[in-house]
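User: Small ask, check this?
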Amino acid sequence: MVRTGTGRARGHDLGRPAPGPFALACGAVCVWLCLCLWWGAEPAPAQPVEMAAPYEYMGWGDPQPPAEVLDDSGLHDLTLAFVLSRGACNPEWDGRRPLLGGVDQRAIEQIRAAGGEVDVSFGGWSGKKLGSACHTPLALADAYEKVIGAYSLRAIDIDIEHNELRSKKVRQRVVSALALVREADPSLEISITFPSSQSGPEASGQSLIADAVAVGLHPDSWTIMPFDFGPPTGTMGAASIQALEALAGELSKAYAITLAAAYEQSGISTMNGHTDEASETVTEQDFARILSFAGEKHLARVSLWSVNRDRPCGGDGPEEECDGLPQGPLAFSSMLAGYAG
């Protein structure tokens, strides 16, 4: 038993000798060593930048202040869109705003000051793409590296669609350039984002994956955009999961990996609210279903288009500033903030 008031353990009461000076010194050294090891331990790895980073487009409509988005939603990171070509192989925001000194650089600084990080997206639907404007893989890789270096980026996203995706020559140039970028910086996170039908990647997307395999490129995430494909079979949540299942099957076959490993290299970027198709609406319930499936399969990336639209409309229809749903501000972003792979 423990003597009242002493705080000493039972062993001391049973006649065991008190520790001598040598034992006390050894104990102190052990404590000191443990503290040193604890202080010098490597911190836990940070969540990948691209894992849960919705798109925000600073050149579109009335973008919400990015630092406030992080604070109000609980998000860690954002994907800023889009870097395009401004004449030849020259990367600029939207093809017309400078890399340094403009609204986009200020957004990056604000995000980092708020404790977040940035995934920069190249491409998108409209505008002149670097994949087409840069005529060799090396030139295109240099253009990507110019942006990476300007902001000391940890993550980039290549949103390849429209004319870039339609041309096999350009598709091959893009993946070859990314292979060069990956060789130069193995720690850089790379996501490739492309359209999808409800039944998964279409012929151009399948070819893009095969082209990447041919040059030995393993991006951190192959991200599909399963919307704007017309009337879905069932809800948009169910349609998105069907497309993800097909994507994982395609990656499993192309890379000769297990289906579980393929899911861990898969991603989805949905469109919150009403899409460009009148028959498509991604509700909060649909997004919750997507997030549940993503967590079950440990998807590498979940994103949405876009933070600009993640708020209710003030009486008008959905545009670049709202998504047409009777939702709270940043409802989708707040849901996404809870995704941890």
The chain has 13 helices and eleven strands. The chain has a mean pLDDT of 89. Residues 10-39 form one domain. Residues 318 and 324 are 4 Å apart (CA to CA).
